[in-house]
Amino acid sequence: MADKMALAKAINESLRRALESDPKVLIMGEDVGKLGGVFRVTDGLQKDFGESRVIDTPLAESGIVGTAIGLALRGYRPVVEIQFDGFVFPAYDQIVTQLAKMHARSLGKVKLPVVVRIPYGGGIGAVEHHSESPEALFAHVAGLKIVSPSNASDAYWMMQQAIQSDDPVIFFEPKRRYWDKGEVNAEAIPGPLHKAQVVREGTDLTLAAYGPMVKLCQEVADAAAEEGRNLEVLDLRSVSPLDFDSIQASVEKTRRLVVVHEAPVFFGSGAEIAARITERCFYHLEAPVLRVGGYHAPYPPARLEEEYLPNLDRVLDAVDRSLAY
Q: Per its UniProt record, what Gene3D superfamilies does this chain match (predicted)?
């Protein structure tokens, strides 16, 4: 049976199931224990599983990830939380020079099953360094899997699959969607972790997004339908690897593509999608692949973030420009 729960609660239930199923699963991070995390995603887990399984760490991101690497080398499956997206950079060295490369450096003999949870993105009125979208920085690094759920069901199952993965996974959690509710069936059989999903069928144009922007794209499709336009919405779910086959299949049907993400458009993940789909679908495309995202500027103060983030009008404008070709 399916239960309706918020995305944050779905992650909490997924972590609980992982702790129950495997004594080698550990949770580490700043305030994840007694406080239950600043977003209460780990609420109640330390109380039920103890301080040796759900560990409050010092404020030291590099140390958190470095310790997780050592634990993974000893057979554990650590799930570490970076409290906010902008706090990950002290740990960037550990992630890209150690966590991502150990498997290749050891010629496949060493595996590091570490999940790095990062609440990311804007839309919550936060202060500086609390609303970044750094996924492209990690996607550029070979050896890391990068995923981001957009709904409660995916949050539950993708976390299960990330923890079970023998490769390191950067798990970007869209913080503005933490309180969005959806159906979660804990007995379902999930699809592949890196498989994109069509969440709305359409024929005129494909909107491709992941994480916090999927809901916006669905709202755009609703608005476009009032004008007689039939848009397809594709939830990419995974940034690395990208499911180019599913994107290609959708574009071959609709012949137009708009990619939407919160991160800056300049050198963003949308650029790779646009280039690859142009190569693959050149003779199918009726318009150039367009991108909608953040600006090539530091994330602004909270009172200006609505001007920075993609919104309904900006995405609809891209749709209009694509359909005008």
A: 3.40.50.920, 3.40.50.970
